[in-house]
Each structure stands twice: as C-alpha cells, then as structure tokens.
Write a structure and sequence with these properties.
The chain contains 14 helices and no strands. By secondary structure, it is mainly alpha-helical. It folds into 3 domains: 289 residues, no CATH class; 76 residues, no CATH class; 54 residues.
Length: 421
C-alpha cells in the first residue's frame, strides 16, 4: 500500500501542475498585453522628441523642399500613437489599436528620416549617409499613410474584416504601397528627373505621369476600403452604427484635404495634417464610446451651416457683382454703397434661409425623437412597459447631454416615465 501510494502521488501532482501554472501563464500574457502598448507609445514619444531636437538644432538652416511644416510627423505620430496605445491597452483584442500604433511608429521614423539630411548638412564635419537618407525620405511616407487610409476602414470598428472574402482588399492595399513606392523611386534621382525631395507636390509638377499609376492604384484601394465601411454601416445597428458615423464624418474630410494637400499651398497641406489629427480623435471617441450619440447633432449642424455658408457666399458674390454693375451704369463709377447693400441682403436672408435649411435637414437626417408618454402602448404587459420606459429614459439622458432638451423638459419627461416603471 505504501509503495502504491508513492507511485500514484507523483502522477497526481504531475496532472495537477498544468492547472496551477495555466493561470500564471495567462496573467503574464495579460501583463505583457497591458505593458506593450505603453512601451510602444514611449518609443513613439522618443522618436517625436528626436525629430523636434533635430528641428531645434537646425532652425537657422533653410528647408525649402519640405512638405507642410517641420514637425508635422511628430504631431501625427503622437496623435495616432496615443489613441492606438489607449485602445490597445484597454481592448488588446481589437486590431484597430495595434494598426494605429504601427502607423505611428512608421510616422515617427519618417519624421527622423525627413530631418536627418538637414542635420547632416549642418554638422561640421557633415554626418554620413545624408544623401541616402534623403532618398529614403522621398518614399517612406507611403508606408505609413496608405495603411491608415486603407486598413482602418477595412477593420473598423471591431478589428476584423467584414468577411474573409475581403482579404483581397488587404493585398490590394499592399500592392498600392509597392507600386507607389516603385513609381516614386523611378521618378526621382538617380533613376528619374526629380531631385530627391520630401515635398510630394513636386512629383506632380516635375514627373506627373511617372507617379500617376501609384496614386491611381492608391485611390482604388482607398475606394475599396471605403466601400467596405459603407457595407458594414448598412448592416450595423445601435452603437456600431454610431461608431462608423463618427469615423465616416472625419474620413469624408480627408479626400478633399488630400487633393489640396498635394498642391504647393501651405494652407492645404496644413488642413491635411489637421484632418489626420481630427480622424485620430474621432477614432478614440468611437472605439471608447465616449459621447457616442452626439454625432447625429454634429452631422445635422454641419449640413445646415455648410449649406448655409455656401449659399450665402454665392448670394454675396452675385449681389455685389450685380450691384456694382448697376452703380457703374447709373453713376459711371464704382461705389462702396454696393458693399453695404449686399451686406444688408445677406443679413436679411440669413435667418429665414437657416430656418428653411434646418427643416430640410431635419426631414432627411431625423434626430432622435423626444419620447412621450403616448409612445407607451396602453394595455401592454407591465414588464414590456417597464422595459420601454427604461429605454426611453436612456434616450432622454442622451438628448439632455446633447443639449436638445432643457433641464426642466428633461425632469418633466423623466417624472412621467418613472411613474410607469
């Protein structure tokens, strides 16, 4: 009996050992998953600080061929990196956070690469590999920009593709990156006519046809990714639909900003950077579901005031042109009275035009209706009435938070609903 017990006991301990070690292994994996985003974020911060140090050290050196403003890479890297690290730390299973971190790391490296040639030329003696790094800076931006514009729409908001059949869209994005990088390399020295530069606007000015294929394929890949998001939105309900609305709202600004940003106009390039920062903010709001349902009110106001601004600008231009011609025909000279008259016309049409536009937008983009006691069905079971009332209470709270309801209106409706729970 003693021998048997000595033989069986070790076997029992061996069987039990994995059960004791599994929780330890899982806890270590969870610890790594929580700490890794922080470590990667710190790496992004170090890259941004390195870029800023290079800028400060070479402020007296001209940098005429840079795109936008010096340090925009650090701004984008910190914006997307902070959002990505926050999402990855709280929801490590969601690939959106990890893609944002990867894009931020590449953007941080791009910032260092863009500034190094200026630092290398300013140093005495000159630092090595300045020309090589400048050549790399002509195309490295593609590796960070295209993944954000293609991969995020494909996997947002749950971190997964719409279906396995959409894997070809991922490969299309990789193909767009490869073709665009290759076309830029062929268009720039030593293989092409364009000197190595970080200003993408010069590609179109000096070698447009050579880089057109890369940009065309990139547009196709972005269009496919946007189509995936539209299909996901049509299938989505509730919170997921609101999440997609937030990101779609910011992404809708990027194509126009990108078109202007590729021109040699600073304000257009600045707007493109600003649209990227805004996109990072909307992704954070959508994933973390912070003030999620306010997007309906934002879209409503954007449509109203965007259309109002466009119409009033047209009215102002047409009115001032017509009135100037009338004054010139009558008096033989231009008059400042035309400007005053046009201003009065615009001021007089502002309020009625805004009211009319608001009614049109409300009819097509209907906000969440204010619940009433009549929405509860008389004669329904008590449990059903209670559930409906609780749901309406939640919607009331959303309307109060967005400012649609005043505190008095909210308290009145709340008291009516609570009486039915």
């Amino acid at each position: 009996m003693n021998t048997t017990s000595h033989v069986v006991a070790p076997a029992q301990r061996d069987d039990q050992q994995p059960a004791r070690l599994a929780p330890v292994h899982d806890s270590r994996r969870d610890l790594v998953a929580r700490r890794l985003p922080v470590l990667l974020w710190l790496t992004i911060v170090l890259l941004a600080l390195a870029e800023l140090w290079m800028i400060v050290a070479t402020l007296d050196r001209p940098a005429p061929d840079l795109w936008a403003f010096r340090g925009f890479e650090a701004v984008l890297a910190l914006s997307f990196g902070s959002v990505g690290a926050l999402i990855a730390a709280r929801r490590p299973e969601n690939r959106v956070g990890w893609v944002l971190i990867l894009v931020s790391l590449l953007t941080g490296v791009q910032g260092v690469v863009d500034q190094y040639p200026i630092l290398a030329a300013a140093a005495v003696p000159a630092l090595p590999a300045g020309d090589l790094i400048k050549w790399i800076s002509t195309w490295i931006w593609v590796i960070s920009a295209v993944p954000f514009m293609c991969f995020i729409p494909l996997i947002f908001p749950d971190g997964r593709l719409l279906s396995p059949r959409w894997r070809w869209a991922v490969w299309l994005a990789f193909a767009a990156i490869a073709v665009q990088v290759g076309s830029i390399i062929l268009a720039t020295e030593p293989l092409g006519p364009v000197p190595a530069t970080t200003n993408t606007a010069l590609y179109f000015e000096l070698a447009g046809p050579r880089v057109a294929a890369g940009y065309l394929l990139q547009i196709v890949a972005i269009g496919v990714a946007a189509t995936s998001m539209v299909m996901r939105y049509r299938r989505a309900q509730g919170d997921e639909r609101q999440q997609i609305k937030w990101v779609a709202y910011s992404v809708a600004l990027i194509p126009a900003a990108a078109a202007i940003g590729m021109l040699p106009i600073f304000i257009g390039q600045f707007l493109l950077v600003a649209s990227g920062v805004f996109a990072a903010a909307t992704i954070a709001i959508a994933i973390l579901r912070y003030r999620l349902y306010e997007i309906d009110l934002i879209i409503n106001r954007t449509l109203v005031y965007g259309a109002l601004s466009a119409i009033l600008a047209g009215v102002y231009t047409a009115s001032i042109t017509l009135s100037q011609r009338l004054f010139t025909a009558v008096t033989g000279e231009r008059s400042d009275a035309a400007i005053v008259l046009t201003t009065l016309i615009v001021a007089a049409t502002f309020t009625p035009l805004k009211t009319r536009l608001q009614a049109i937008v409300d009819a097509r983009v209907k906000p969440v209706p204010v619940p009433t006691t009549g929405s509860l069905i008389i004669g329904a079971p008590t449990a059903a009435i209670s559930a409906d009332a609780l749901e309406l209470l939640a919607r009331l709270a959303q309307l109060r938070a967005t400012g649609v309801l005043t505190k008095r209106e909210y308290d009145t409706k709340k008291a009516e609903l609570l009486s039915r729970v």
